[in-house]
């Protein structure tokens, strides 16, 4: 193919092809392909020439075409519910650290907890756009997990309770974390402990509720459904949950929120009522996001290694991308109770 003249280059950038880049750089189109796909066996000098030619010609790689041609898009898809949560940001930070090291780009979609969006975005990403898929706290896995399994499309679920045998996932010891938190409050002589759950469709929320219930049972205390408010992991629901629990005829002396964001909402509601923390109400969270140590009083919470969760999820996905037939693995990382100043012994009130 002839080399394009300057006049030719004034046409649409979509007219620039891999062969044009090869002509401009004075290399074979196979070399250009290796550079685009971040493959080895290209000298630094040739790689620099190819990159310079791409910039000069305004070449934009068509990721979908590259994948359809049997190559790698070198892109990983990531689905999250919200970007406003520090929980999500910390996990994403760990994912990005690993993918950057391996020269993968990230395509991000936010679902805002809309199940139809989640399914649609999964379909879009797996149709030759991405080489693998990460889902943080997925909501509607039943609509697409079977298809991903049958196609052996590399995917990893983050912070999701699965059957283990079928869904690759990275999570933490949610049950044990909640149990430890409840045990701590019970050791502080609290007997009426309110609990604000996360979204009931998420596995981690289910496990934390089960940990709450198990701790009550092991201490010989009855489970009172009135003390449980069903939330969605968002701060306004922590606020509303606290209002509901504190309006009970016999209100709780402590409230355990299923994540830190909701615990902040509990703090807000308590202060509006003129309650002093922790003298009038003990509050405990889950996640240990950076803000937990900065609020007043500093929040006692269950630490999840969020950055590490992201790193391990990205590493596991890269393993599946290298070998889609690898055995399914479910990784569970430990949690730790971080004691700060938001809880107090009940007898000291």
TrEMBL record:
Pfam families: LacI, Peripla_BP_3. GO terms for molecular function: DNA-binding transcription factor activity; transcription cis-regulatory region binding. PROSITE patterns: HTH_LACI_1, HTH_LACI_2. InterPro entries: HTH_LacI (IPR000843), LacI/GalR-like_sensor (IPR046335), Lambda_DNA-bd_dom_sf (IPR010982), Peripla_BP_I (IPR028082). It comes from the Bacteria. The keyword Aminoacyl-tRNA synthetase does not apply. Residues 16-70 form the HTH lacI-type domain. The keyword Transcription regulation applies. Keywords: DNA-binding, Transcription, Transcription regulation. Gene3D superfamilies: 3.40.50.2300, lambda repressor-like DNA-binding domains. This is LacI family transcriptional regulator. It comes from Dictyobacter arantiisoli. The lineage of its organism: Bacteria, Bacillati, Chloroflexota, Ktedonobacteria, Ktedonobacterales.
């Amino acid at each position: 193919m002839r080399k394009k003249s300057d006049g030719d280059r004034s046409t649409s950038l979509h007219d620039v092809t891999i062969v044009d880049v090869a002509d401009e750089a004075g290399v074979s189109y196979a070399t250009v392909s290796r550079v685009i796909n971040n493959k080895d066996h290209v000298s630094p000098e040739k790689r620099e020439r190819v990159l310079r030619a791409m910039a000069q010609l305004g070449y934009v790689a068509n990721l979908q075409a590259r994948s359809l041609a049997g190559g790698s898009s070198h892109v990983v898809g990531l689905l999250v519910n919200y970007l406003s949560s520090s929980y999500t940001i910390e996990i994403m930070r760990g994912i990005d650290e690993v993918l950057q090291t391996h020269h993968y780009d990230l395509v991000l979609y936010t679902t805002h907890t809309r199940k139809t969006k989640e399914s649609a975005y999964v379909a879009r990403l797996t149709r030759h756009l991405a080489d693998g898929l990460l889902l943080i706290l997925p909501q509607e896995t039943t609509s697409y997990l079977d298809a991903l399994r049958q196609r052996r499309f590399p995917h990893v679920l983050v912070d999701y309770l699965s059957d283990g045998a079928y869904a690759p996932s990275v999570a933490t010891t949610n049950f044990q974390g909640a149990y430890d938190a409840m045990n701590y409050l019970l050791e502080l002589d609290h007997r009426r402990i309110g609990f604000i759950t996360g979204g009931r469709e998420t596995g981690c929320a289910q496990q934390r509720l089960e940990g709450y219930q198990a701790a009550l049972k092991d201490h010989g205390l009855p489970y009172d459904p009135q003390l449980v408010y069903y939330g969605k992991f968002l701060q306004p629901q922590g606020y509303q949950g606290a209002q509901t629990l504190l309006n009970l005829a016999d209100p709780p002396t402590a409230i355990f929120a299923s994540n830190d964001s909701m615990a902040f909402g509990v703090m807000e509601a308590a202060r509006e009522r003129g309650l002093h923390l922790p003298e009038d109400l003990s509050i405990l969270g889950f996640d240990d996001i950076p803000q937990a140590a900065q609020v007043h009083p500093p929040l006692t919470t269950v630490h999840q290694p969020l950055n590490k969760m992201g790193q391990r999820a990205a590493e596991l996905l890269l393993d599946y991308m290298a070998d889609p037939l690898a055995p399914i693995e479910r990784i569970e990382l430990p949690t730790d109770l971080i004691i700060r100043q938001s809880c107090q012994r009940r007898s000291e009130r």
